[in-house]
Amino acid sequence: MRGTLTHLGTIEHYQATGETVDDGAGGTIPQKDWVTVVDGVPCRYEPEGQGYVRQDQGGRVYESPRVYFPARSVGEMVDVSGAEEEATYEYQLDVAAGDDYRLTLDAVDGVFALSDPDVHYEGPNRPSHVIIEVERIDPEDA
Q: Which superkingdom (predicted)?
């Protein structure tokens, strides 16, 4: 991954805690809470309009902010082969796009939703970094 790691990023996932609460109708519902998936990992933040994308017909400026994470900090290589086959590895992200994931950066005010994680590779089975497009969300929605 080229460039300077400028911030510390924390990604949280809204998931079931394993506990249940009374639903008020004689039953129970699973209790959910924000659980930290990536905690204070060095990353690079590029605000909206700061990066440049090459295209076939020229170029354009990024329309949304992006955060670059080293691949080892937001995922891992996992064996996806069967027990009797030769080992086959794939990179598996620990994060995904959607409303149930949120990102905070140490030196940037606000909370961000993850919208488009994109894994970049140095070579076969060698992920180098992950670029995640983010979108600022209202703190009341977080």
A: Archaea
89 contact partners, CB below 8 Å, separation of at least 6: 77, 78, 79, 80, 125
Higher pLDDT, 18 or 34: 34
Helices (H) and strands (E) in the chain, counts: 1, 10
| All structural domains of the chain with their residue ranges | 6-19+28-137
CB atoms within 10 A of CB 12: 20
SS3 140: coil
Please give the helix or strand (H or E) that residue 45 lies within, else none: strand 28-46
Q: Please state the pTM of the whole predicted model.
A: 0.79
